[in-house]
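Q: Hi! First time doing this. I have a protein sequence and I read that you can turn it into a structure. Is that right? Here it is:
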Amino acid sequence: MKVVIFGANGKTGALLVEQALAKDYQVVAYIRKAGSILTDHPNLKVIVGNLNEQLNLTDAITDADACISALGGRSLTHRSPEIVQGIENIVSLMEQEVVPRLIYLSSLGAGDSRYMMPLPMRFLMVNIMLRMTLADHNANEERIAKSKLKWTVIRPGLLTDGPATRKYKHGSEKVKLKGDANISRANVAAFILQQLTEETYVKKSVWLHE
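A: Yes, that's right. Below is the predicted 3D structure, encoded as structure tokens:
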């Protein structure tokens, strides 16, 4: 399987690259900063480019089986229009190149998942701390949902640096979450890669926590 990972140099993106290579996948890591991935592997191709560079994006996406977005903004206080436009570019190219599968890493609090959170946490995280980040995720999720792709949106809880235990809870139904709903980035990466070969959550948004 050939998989393109956008945001491959971030904390979750790097784990996606590592775990995908361990599965013997062909991995294309799309990064915006040269030298931010030092891994040397025969199944790894690194492409350095911005999200508005059509030639680089086409090079990455052409002949892929799936794309994963682990893109994230660099600020909690400002929107990231380059990422919102980047998702538009990625989705459009995937449709053009007939690359059917897209996994988008969002966040708990995006879309209707905000109502799954306890009221104090919802007010703090959704209305204050992650307001700008979630606005970007909401815009991206809306664009993806309108696409012709076989998409899945992953909405994990608070990310930690714990190990990959593969013990986590997930679903697409509306539930009331209790506690902090934390999950390790390693477990998020494992769950995302699992979706590449499963159909359960195609065209669905999934909550995820430990």
